[in-house]
Amino acid sequence: MSSKINGHVSPQPCPHLLDFRSCNGSKPFRAFQDCIRVKPPGGRAAIRREPSEVPRCGTCEESFRSRLYACAACAAVFCHAPPLHSHASAHALSIPGHEIAVDVDRAELFCCACRDQVYDRDFDSAVVLAQTITATATTSTSGSTAMQRNVAGYQPENLRKRRRVDYRPWAPDSREHIIIGNHSIPLHDATNASLISSTELPWGLRGLNNLGNTCFMNSVLQALLHTPPLRNYFLSDRHNRYYCQQKNGAINGAINGTKNSRLCLACDMDAMFSAVFSGDRTPYSPAKFLYSWWQHAANLASYEQQDAHEFFISMLDGIHEKVEKDKRKSLRPGIGDCCIAHRVFSGILRSDVMCMACGFTSTTYDPCVDISLDLEPNQGASGKSSSAKSHSSCNAEGDCMGSNQNCGISTLKGCLERFTRAEKLGSDQKFFCQKCQVRQESLKQMSIRKLPLVSCFHIKRFEHSSIRKMSRKVDRYLQFPFSLDMAPYLSSSILRSRFGNRIFPFDGDEQDASNELSSEFELFAVVTHTGRLDAGHYVTYLRLSNQWYKCDDAWITRVNESIVRAAQGYMMFYVQKMLYYKASEKQAAS
After folding, report:
1. Average pLDDT over residues 467-478
2. pLDDT tens digit string along 58-71?
3. CB 117 within 8 A of CB 101
């Protein structure tokens, strides 16, 4: 049964764990206390073994698999390496009662039948007790050593008076500049491309562990970790987590001890960038970021599958909200004086509503961080969403790439053309004309007033009908280009096509010409969704050095361009071409 913990509903317990507890008593894991060892610095728990002992799988006798698990019933060790195979799951299915196992390197419970981590309070108590005993023994040993030093005339380290030094950002001097220049290599240098093996992954490409239905988070984080403006911002120490915590009175993750204060998502992003670009290739676990996001979005704090687009919007709002509170002023997204999230992703949409009787036009501007596009054709209703004014498109090509009810091919350019096309509002949406002083029929047209540095297009593949009381997924295939020119969808282009050269600049539209110089975009990340509405999986395709890579949680593989084009795109990230650098262009220039 589900239970409430701190106001949140905990998931249903594992049935195999309940059977294991019923067959082995009320506290079956207390005996594991003697089998757990804790490494002194950091206190990481693992299964105790001899220093020279190397654990191996009992079936394939290999020790380099991603995970090794020891059966809690017979202590046999088996590997678990999805999606290739899982000898641990095969052992659990062959012998009833052997479903529960313990991670050899992490001392964590794992259900081999469910293929997921499980939690048990009794097992957690055994690990905590082992950690306490290790910490007590370490303290007593260090205490006796300190007493011996005192007798010899040495003052203990913890009694020495220390001078508190404020943190200062590091800047290299002239001598250090010379050392850096002589002993460093740029991350993407065509002259050193021969030194990099063809099988080696690009710098900063690292898998992310699934923490329990968190593929929605991993897919978006992979795209953000390789967003050029965002990557350059964090890697250049523009947001230093140590300085931010010190400024806000947060030491070691405790923010003044107040309940209302929330953790800083930007600080967790800074820590994640440092870990991913450290050179370590082992998969990284973004548990700290997940916890901070749960603090910000308490209504989404669960181990259930969430929507990747909803996570993207919530995370950007969390970064913006924290910066806005720190600066104690109202920040306006889209004008350049906001947080890094809105400086990268925020643009401005223009909405023109024109009276069909007298031609009076009412213009409004709204900021947006993405544009949502509907694959379905309009069914008599407006195809524009409230947050980013979505739109639909269906090309007249006779191919069927989706399910039976979703035939036809849609293109991203077709969706954008329909998004910026003028539409007549219905009779129930008559516009109050300030010139006529009555409600009149009107035309509405959307356009892009200001382009962001990175444009995110969200494809609305999940539909919820309140009339039919049902939800479904739209599996229609979408063609998306690798290079995209946004000039036809700008406000200046739309107004010029409507009025020709006779138009006068309205409300600062003469500044739109600056957007035309940077209207070309390059695709660098595609987030895809496969499966059903209630049981699906998110995967990200990244374009690095003109090569595509598939990021499936902890697994990174190189793929062909054709696989990316055939993928069922859910979110597409385009960066301005002036900010996108390809290895082929560098080689041609050299």
Report:
1. 73
2. 888 787 666 888 88
3. no
Give the type of residue at 470. M
State yes or no: is 537 an active-site residue: yes
d(CA 224, CA 220): 6
Which amino acid would we find at residue 125?
S
- CB atoms under 10 Å from CB of 308, counted, come to 23
Alpha carbon distance 479, 456 (integer Å): 16
pLDDT averaged over the chain? 75
Has this prediction a pTM greater than 0.70? no
Cα separation, 106 vs 104, in Å, equals 6
Per DSSP, the three-state class of 187 is coil
* 21 vs 261, more confident: 21
The predicted structure's pLDDT at residue 377: 62
16 as an active site residue: the answer is no
Residue tagged 């996001």 (tokens): 293
Query: Given pLDDT bands bounded at 50, 70 and 90, which one contains residue 151?
Result: very low
For residue 132, pLDDT beyond 70: no
Distances (CA, A) of 80 to 45, 115, 286: 20, 9, 21
Secondary structure (DSSP) of 9-38: EPPPPPHHHHHHHHHS-S-TTGGGGGGEEE
Alpha helix positions (H), 297-356: 308-327, 340-345
Amino acid at 324: E
Active-site entry in 215, 264, 355, 394: 215
Half-sphere exposure of 197 (CA within 13 A, CB side): 3
Distance of CA 52 to the CA centre of its chain: 39
Closest CA to 243 of 316, 170, 176: 170
pLDDT at 393 over 70: no
Name the residue among 164, 58, 160 with its Cα closest to residue 112: 58
